[in-house]
From TrEMBL:
InterPro entries: Rossmann-like_a/b/a_fold (IPR014729), Universal_stress_UspA (IPR006015), UspA (IPR006016). This is Universal stress protein UspA-like protein. Residues 2-141, 149-275 form the UspA domain. It comes from the Bacteria. Belongs to the universal stress protein A family. It comes from Bernardetia litoralis (strain ATCC 23117 / DSM 6794 / NBRC 15988 / NCIMB 1366 / Fx l1 / Sio-4).
Length: 280
């Protein structure tokens, strides 16, 4: 881990994501890129001069807000390796472009925002970043106060390159000084046996010295898989839950208003979303 990219809209939630990223950077000895994109106002009419003045005002506001953030970081974390960047343009496109330009190893962002970049943290734009970013994305929910991980938990559906995924997560767990678990929510005898076989073969291969704890999690007949995972995270605080990007419907349910009251707890827990290991 070398570079953590943090998009800001200067809302409290995005600042919470920044605090989260700072702790990760300190643990993994990484550099942080603090990023903001302001967008020129969309006006159907009006003079060119009027639009330019509004754009300049937006730029000045962004610079003033970033200055406060930078000064606070220097005050609280004087030894932190970081730089900041302000650009104009569509936030979604700029986040994707600059995170790749900086060869970011991780993007850390919030799930809710204020004006200007709201859609980045709430709607289809967030899904676009999750799906198109060239690196894993850590989503920090609005109520999250956790800034360290004791364990990284990969929930496998046994449909991906789990070996490659775990090999990648081993490095992440080492960087973050966390334990690594691979869990499978039981479905039927066939999938349970498949998981047990994979766990046994993986450990026998001894990919490296980082130990992986494999667990099968029981599920009641009427329970949904996401509810079982939410229960597990609740029972094991300081957990970073890992999901693959292909499980988009699950992610939408996880962060949607239709999820049961258990979501109230999970809203305090970060989620690492990564692409299939064969593309890492």
């Amino acid at each position: 881990m070398q570079t953590i990219f943090v998009p800001l809209d200067f809302s409290e939630n995005s600042l919470q994501a920044l605090r989260h990223a700072i702790q990760l950077a300190k643990t993994s000895v990484s550099k942080i890129i603090v990023f903001h994109s302001y967008q020129a106002p969309q006006m159907g009419g009006g003079s060119f001069t009027g639009k330019r003045k509004l754009t300049e005002l937006g730029k000045q506001e962004a610079e003033d807000n970033m200055y406060k953030v930078v000064m606070k970081i220097k005050e609280v974390e004087p030894n932190l390796d970081f730089e900041h960047l302000i650009v104009d343009g569509d936030p979604m496109q700029r986040i994707l472009f600059y995170s790749e330009s900086y060869a970011a190893d991780l993007i850390v962002m919030g799930t809710k925002g204020a004006s200007g970049m709201t859609e980045v943290f709430l709607g289809s734009v967030a899904a676009k970043i999750i799906n198109d970013a060239t690196c894993p994305v850590v989503i920090v929910p609005q109520e999250s106060e956790k800034e360290t991980y004791e364990r990284i938990v990969y929930a496998t559906a046994l449909i991906a390159d789990d070996k490659g995924t775990l090999n990648y997560l081993k490095g992440l767990a080492t960087d973050f000084k966390a334990k690594l678990e691979c869990i499978h929510v039981e479905e039927n005898a066939e999938t349970n046996t498949k998981f047990e076989t994979f766990a046994r073969n993986y450990n026998e291969e001894g990919t490296n010295n980082q130990y992986v704890d494999f667990k099968t999690i029981s599920k009641k007949e009427e329970q949904k898989t996401e509810d079982v995972l939410l229960d597990y995270v609740q029972e094991n605080p300081l957990t970073l839950l890992v999901m693959l990007r292909r499980e988009r419907d699950f992610l939408q349910r996880l962060f949607g208003h239709s999820v049961t009251n258990k979501m109230a707890y999970h809203s305090e827990s970060p989620l690492l979303i990564m692409k299939a290991a064969d593309k890492i």
